[in-house]
Structures are given as C-alpha cells and as structure tokens.
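I would like you to sit down with the record closing this message with an eye to the fold:
=====
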Amino acid sequence: MTDTALQAGLDSATLSDLLRLAGSPGFDRLTEQLRRTGGCTAPIRLTGAAKLLDPATKTVLHAYSTDAEPGGVLRVACGNRRASRCPSCAWTYAGDTYHLIRAGLVGNPDKGTPETIRDHPRVFATLTAPSFGPVHNRPGTRPCRCGQQHQEDAPELGTPLDPDTYDYAGAVLWNNHASELWRYFTIYLRREIAARACLTQKAAREQSRVSFGKVAEYQKRGAVHFHAVIRFDGPDGPHTPPPAWATLGLLTDAIHAAAARVQVVVPAAPAYGVSQDLTLTWGTQLDVQPIGAFGNGEDLTEQAVAAYVAKYATKAAETTGSVDHRVGNKEALILLDVPDHPRRLMEACMDLDAAYPDRRLRAWAHMLGFRGHFSTKSRAYSTTLGALRQVRADYRAAQQRTALGLPDPDEHPDSTLLVVAHWAYAGHGTTPGESWLAANIRRDIQHNREIARETRARIEASAEEEW
C-alpha cells in the first residue's frame, strides 16, 4: 500500500477497487451518478430503459437505457431516514421535516399555511415515560445518587443504579404502547379543551381545531419520549383564526390535564414475569413551553423548534447503544457487542414476545419495543413530506426538460408527451471504491453547505447592523 493511500485511510481492497474504477471508461459518469445521489451510502441499483414519445407523430424525442451506464445500472438514492444508515439521505429527510414543522409555525402559502398562523397560540410540549427504576444522571449541580458527579458524556448515564431491580419488562412494554398513549392523549386533549371552554365537544370542534407535529426521541435510559408542536386553529384549520377563548393558557392547562388522564392497561402474564396488570401512564416530567416568534429575543423560537424536531427525526434506538436492524436471538446481541443496558431491554422484548404475540416485541427488539412512526403530524398542520418530495422531483424534471430542449407543460398545456419505461431492481449498495468516492462527495457537499450557511449568516448580520 502506498503512503498516499495510508494517509487517505484506504485499505488494500478499497485502493484496488478505486484504481479499477479510475481506470474504467465510465468513471466520470459513475462519479456523476454518485454526486446526484448526494453521496448516498447504499444507493439502489436499477436496470431498464425509458422512451419519451410524441403521441401524435409517434416520434421518439428521447431514449435512455442503463446499458450505457457504468456497470449497466442506474444508481438512485436509498431515501433512508436513519443517519446511522445513510447520512446523505437522512440530511434530506431532516431538511424536509424542518420545512414541514417550520411551515406550521411561521406560515408558508406554498406549503399550505398562511403567514397569519404566527398569531395562533402554539406550544412545544415534551411528554416523557415514567420511572422504571433509578438511573445514573446529572441532576443539575448536585451529584448523582451514586455519589459521583458524572461528566456529560459519561457512558454510565441513563443506566440503572441496580440493573437487577430495574423494571425492564415495564420499560419495553411502555415503549411498545407509546403510540397508544399518544393517541389517547390527543383524544383527551380535545375533551379537556371543550371542558375548559364550557362547550360540548361538538361545539368546540365547530369553533376550533387542534393541530400538531411531533417527533419521538430516545432518552439515554432507552425510554421513548415525544416532542410535539401543538397549535390552536380556527374551525377550518390554519386558514381561519382560533376563537377568542382559545388562549395559550387554556391550551397549556388542557395539555397537562389530558396527559394526567391517559392510561393504557396491559394484562398480566405471570408465566413471563409480569405478575399483575400494568397500568401505563405518562411520566410526571411534562414540559409545556410557549413558542416565541423568530427574532423577538425568546430562547424557544420557531426556528429552534423546527431544527430540534428535524434533528431527532433521523435518529432512533441506536443512540442508546442498540442496533439499527432487527436481531433474531439473544446470542446475536453478544456477537454485536451491545452494551449491558440496551441488551437487557432487547432481551426483555424477546422474553415477552410469546406473552403478547400481537405486539410483535421480538420484531421490534432493536427499537427497544417501540413500533410507532418517529415523526407524525395531524392532517391540517402544514404540508406533507410527499408534497415536499414532489416539489424536488418536479424541479429536477424541469431541469431535464431544459437540457433536452423539451417544452414546459405549464407553458404549453396542449403539448402531450408519452413516457414508456421499464425498470427492474438490480440490488443496492456500493463496492469499496464506490463507497470511498461517495463518502468524499458527501463530505464535499456538507462542506459547501457549511460555507453557504456561514456566508448567509454574515450577510444577514451585516444587513441588521446597517439597519
């Protein structure tokens, strides 16, 4: 291996494959494909062909086939939201989530919300799990219960003081039912709002609507908790103002009351260590904060909330030491070197799977029992992830039409084009050399984004000083 290869962190297999790729006639096109995926870690490989026809004259306006591509395949981004799987696609997903949440806070007519939405009462609520046993933590300036003052990155944070007495069964069953807890919370929230407004539930629905966008996050102890933007709207959603009685104080009180009412009962399974029925509830650490307008000096601003939700939309149980894929048995946990606490949680899922077969605990052991969606929203909150992806697809389609000299359908509504295509899945992933190229492309793109962000920040700061 050469000194240059050693400095670049290349092993012999990667270097050999990279040299093979660099000497191939399709190297430039391969690099272009990887760049178009954003440096995707595990791009999907497709084979097939497409033709663009004028249906009136049967003329072929454009023809494409993967036969001419490097390796005979077209590489497209995997689209995985997990940062542990694909940092590039996760960045795109986080960006879409950011714009979705922000559109529901500041308004964006292109994304289905008017700018007047900033005047609607809205809060940022955090609903947590109850205690399943004392764990190592950092309680302010005081020492932990173990007597030590833990550092912020201490590996023991979130792990039980006494693993033998920790309620692992209760912890994974709570995670497994967290989505039901949230569903009941939204039901009780509307009831509590109606009660505080001295209205029937029907009358409250006719005068107002509650919209939300939420994300799930794992605490270090392995318990899921939810961060949610909750907003008061008028009867027709974000385009109508909420009634006068729909105040920030009423919304805050209703959230606290609704969370306290929620209960989900899990039947006992004595043969599997659950000696009595479990009554699952939210934890007492419920935090509800008003969201301030961006630029008005508040700590919890619209931009900060959107960025926070987007950050955790790409993370999952792997942040606790678990893995980001399904595990078939306990022996695999040892081979994967899973730390003790998450390993015990995963083993509890496997042990309880037969007791609650409809809950599929073994299948979701790598998620520590949680089986819900990580980011969700109510229908009227703002735009959708699908709509944001469609805008991106339309933009790229317009670029392709311009490059091929084809008419714009918006400017020429009478022009009709027929697309005849056939695609087949040919695998996914990259060779060692392709992986190295993709990582460097991803690094360059990230570097360019950081430079652009810093430049934009300096321009905005300069404009404020001049003002």
Observations:
- The first strand starts at residue 44 and ends at 54.
- The CA atoms of residues 96 and 388 lie 7 Å apart.
- The radius of gyration is 26 Å.
